[in-house]
Structures are given as structure tokens and as C-alpha cells.
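Appendix B, example 12.
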Amino acid sequence: MADASKSQDAGLQTLRRPGSVMERTARGTGWVIFWRFANRGLGLISTLFLVRLLSPADFGVVALAMSFTQGLQQLAELGTENAIIRDDMPDRALYDTGFTINVLRGLGVAAIVLVIAHPAAHFFHNRHFTAVVIVAAAVSALGGFENIGIVDFRRFIAFDQEFWLKLIPRVASVVTAISLAFLIHNFWALIIAILVNQCITLWLTYYMHPYRPRFTLAAWNRIASYSTFLWLSNIVGLLQGLSTNVAVGRLIGVGAVGIYGVGAEIAALPSSELIGPLSRAAFPGFSEVRKAEDKGAEMFLRVLGLMTMLTLPAAVGLSAVADPVVRLAFGSRWLAAVPVVQIAGIAEAFAIFAMVSRTMFAVHGWTKAILKLSLAGIAVQLLLLIVLVPRYGLVGAVLAGAIPSMIGQFLFFSVAAWRLS
């Protein structure tokens, strides 16, 4: 226990940033948003080179393998980081249990991916798919061994450290992908770059933080009691997205699924690029306030007010200019996505209320309430899909997602405000 205490004391001294919780959360949000834009920029640079050096089939086989692996990882996500961050007295047992769970998760996903590698290659009629999946499994396994100590970067709202932890491997992977694409002109340039990213990330987690984890499940109950309902809520969220795609594909056609996906992605840009980073930075801030025996009502309202001023105009404005945005960015073939952006954009304008409220729910451990509200949301969505899609087509599908989203935003905010009062 002595070495664990020293590690935590060192973390407090080196990672604690000056200023109030609100100030540190604001700076942390800036670093997370900065990373999102840096990542987008590096991705754009990489794409501009790679599309001229590699074929669409090269991109397709890698994207298919990695998306399947990432989907399994998301299904197996147990929220170990958040469980450590919100714990009042996180000790070595909790950190090491989180590390062990992550290792088991990474190896488990890798094993499943390896089992389906050959049948999937046969199903997709691609002889290269097996080799790509094997590397994807290795990436998953390596990811599980990352140093759990880096959770302190979030716990102490030191997102500048997390920024460098993500940026350095990303730059290395972009350089690797472009260099190899010039040399070998096939999908191995992409998959090796992904492997390089994971290997450097793994090394950096131990280089940047002195904590050295051990294998144990001694604190399993402490993590499971918090994470179980959140995991179930994540499953419900995945089913919500899947149900819309299935309904649209079955009743309208596969092409409509692509149109819906593109439109929904455009409409969600304010949420993914602004609200998402805020929620990630706000979690440790809300957690720190809670540990100080403050429910966090004041910070909750200040965060909501500040971010509403940014996200509401962005989302409403995007909805208003949906036609020229889609026309210029994607061409006339995608004009059917315009009503998707218009309707979903209005719903996304108020997503800040649900996402920040949900973050507060998670901090306070109101996980059963999250699950109940999520189940109510998918029930309403399924009913609306059955009623609206056959009658109104793609617009009906968008309404079936937007209406329960708006209701959920109101309910999450109302319940959070009531419990914090």
C-alpha cells in the first residue's frame, strides 16, 4: 500500500492544475476540443494522401475489420475509468482491478475476433480479411495492457497530458501510413499504422505515469456495483441506433440507410465536437465537487448555461443551412439527407441538456435511473418507427428518433435538477 500512496501523492503534486474546479474544467474542455480538431486535421491530411495511393478496397477491408473490433469493445465497455474517478478513496486495489478488467476485456475481444476471422473472410469473399482481423485482434489485446494510472490525467483534470498522450501516437501513425503507402501501395500501410499507434500509446502510458499495475480482482464489487447499469444503458443506446437502421433498411431500402447515416452525422456535429468534449471534461469536475460534499447544482447550471450559448446557435444554424451544406459537401445525389439534417439538427440543439445531465447522473451513481430513462426512450422510438416509417418514409424515421430524443432531454434535465435541488 505504501507504493500506491506514494504514486497517488505524486500524481496530486504533478497533475493538479491551479484554479477553481470550474476554471480547470473549462481549460480541460479546451484541451479535449483542441484534440478533436487536431485529430480531424491529421485525418484530413492523411486521407488526402492515401486516397491517391490506395484503392477503396484497401480502405474497406481495414474499416470493416476495425469497426467490428471497436463495436465489440464498446459492448464490453464497463466504465472502469469513471468508476475510479468518482470513487471517494481510490486505492491500489481499485486501480489494479480496473487494469485487470481492461486486460481481460482486451484479450476477450481479441479472442472473439480471431474466432470469426476466417468465417468472416469467407462471408465477405476477401482473402485479405483474415490477416487484417488478426492485426486488429493484436491491437485490442495490446490496448488492454495500457497503464491504468493514466486515469489520473482525467481524475485531476489534467487534459493537457492526455492531449500529448493521444497526439504523439496519432502523428506517428499518419507518418507511417503515408510512408508505407508510397512504398507498398496496399492495405498493410493502414493496418501497420494502426498497430504503430497502439504500440506507441501503450509505451507512453508507462512513460508518462509512474504507476505500475498488478493483476487482481479484489475490488471487483466496487466497480461492478457502479458499472453494471451503465453497461446495460450503453447496450440500449446501441440498440436504438441499430433499430433505426434496420427499420429504414427493411421498409425503405439500403440506400436510405446511407442517406440517414450521413444526415444524422452532419446534424450531430455540434454534439460530437462540442458537447462530447465538455461532458468528458465535466465528469471529473462534477466528481470533485461531489467529493467536497456539494451536490454540484451551481456548477451544473453554469456549465449548461455556458455551453448552451455555444451549441444552440451552432445546431439551429446548421439546421437552417442544411440544403447548401449538403449540396456543397456531398453533391446533388445526397439531397435526400437535407430533411434529416433539418429535423435532427433541431433535436441536437438541445442535446446539451441530456448529455450534461447524464454526466451528472453517472457522477452521483444514479445508474438505475439512466437505464430506466434509456429503456423508456427506446420503447417510444420503436413505437414511432412502426407508426411513422411506413407512412412518411425517411422523414418518419428521423421524427422517430428526434421525438424521443427531445423527450429524453427534458426528462434527464428535470430529474437532475430535482435531485440536485
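The CA atoms of residues 74 and 236 lie 12 Å apart. The chain has a mean pLDDT of 86.
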